[in-house]
Amino acid sequence: MISSGSFDDRPIVVTAGPFQVAVTIATGDAAFTVEENLAPVPGGASAVAAWKMYIPARGSLGAALEAAAAALDHVSTGTAPEPSEKASTGSSAIDAAALRALGGR
């Protein structure tokens, strides 16, 4: 799916209640220049078990991805819902200072 370019301009999105994260996949030369965002995901520590992953289904693999997603409860080829304001500004239960201390930074 990556080599077909399916994710070049649309991320994979994972949602769970108010929690939402977009996973962007860089390919080719761009993969060597990406700066990762390693910040804690607001709401990630308290995400519910009812999660869903939204994957773009288009191109030559579109029909196969739609068929696979139809058989899975947690995968969809539809459009992910817009993130809520609460999810994008909520606080995290992860202690960033403690994580940095564990990593020696």
Describe the fold and architecture:
With 105 residues, the protein is an alpha+beta fold. It contains three helices and four strands. The chain has helices at residues 62-70, 85-89, 96-102; strands at residues 12-16, 19-23, 51-54, 75-76. It has a four-stranded mixed beta sheet. α1 links the parallel β3 (51-54) and β4 (75-76). The longest helix has 9 residues, at 62-70. The protein is flat.
Structure described in brief:
The protein has 3 helices and 4 strands; from the N terminus they run βββαβαα. By secondary structure, the protein is of the alpha+beta class. Strands 2-1-3-4 form a 4-stranded mixed beta sheet.
